[in-house]
Design brief:
Pfam family, one: FG-GAP_3
Distance between the termini: 42 Å
Shape: globular
CATH class of the largest domain: Mainly Beta
Radius of gyration: 17 Å
CATH superfamily of the largest domain: YVTN repeat-like/Quinoprotein amine dehydrogenase
Structural class: mainly beta
InterPro entries: FG-GAP, Integrin_alpha_N
Helix content: under 10%
Largest sheet: 4 strands, antiparallel
Protein name: VCBS repeat-containing protein
Keywords: Signal
């Protein structure tokens, strides 16, 4: 993993390299320990874990602390999913079709996935490989939900959050025949006060799909 510190003029310094696990797939910058400094959460695909590097505040980071996940994790979402004021991790795996929830303590560490009750680990309910994930309140109930891209099904799945760190099975939405959805982001693209979904199509179509939210 490389850090290039900005100069403030649009240029960047030389890269600073940090060791990660095998096949790092995804990275998110958040303050997971509440000290006002950005930390990094890295998904290590072939190592089947997520690594947390705590920020020191001067552009340096500690060595990663790893937490086991299901095999071949691809991406992570970081937010407070159980409403306790601490950032949690939701990790998507593309081997077991499972979603892992690792609840944060607020000190930069996370409870082990293997220690969770079984109802905090969810079958995605589909037979496909998930790739991308984004966070948003799609149903207007003030609870954080997840949207996950499913490559071979040409669909995205919306997992509604309950507010206690758990999620329901996905509602699937097509991204078009022959599409292969990969990256995903959310925003209110038509200014109606509801979060919409934008998905990149990794097929020969070379397109981007927008799904407008119709939830009342």
């Amino acid at each position: 993993m490389s850090i290039l510190l900005g100069t403030g003029s649009g240029s960047f310094g030389s890269q600073i390299i940090y060791s990660t696990g095998l096949n790092p797939q995804w990275i998110v910058a958040k303050d997971v320990d509440g000290d006002g400094r950005l930390d990094l959460v890295i998904v290590n695909g072939y190592s089947s874990n997520v690594g947390v590097m705590l920020g020191i505040g001067n552009g340096d980071f500690t060595s990663q602390i790893t937490y086991p996940t299901f095999a071949n994790p691809t991406c992570v979402a970081v937010d407070d999913f159980d409403g306790d004021g601490h950032l949690d991790l939701v990790v998507i795996s593309n081997t077991w079709l499972l979603t892992s929830v690792l609840l944060g303590t607020g000190h930069g560490d996370f409870r082990s996935q293997t220690m969770f009750p079984s109802d905090l680990t969810y079958l995605s309910g589909v037979t496909d490989v998930p790739y991308g994930v984004a966070i948003g309140d799609f149903s207007g109930d003030a609870q954080l939900d997840l949207v996950v891209t499913f490559y071979d099904l040409a669909s995205v799945g919306v997992f509604l959050g309950t507010g206690n760190g758990s999620f329901g099975l996905p509602t699937m939405f097509s991204t078009g025949s022959g599409s292969t959805p990969f990256g995903v982001t959310v925003g209110d693209f038509n200014s109606d006060g509801r979060l919409d979904i934008a998905v990149t199509d990794n097929s020969a179509h070379n397109t981007m799909n927008v799904l407008l939210n119709t939830c009342m």
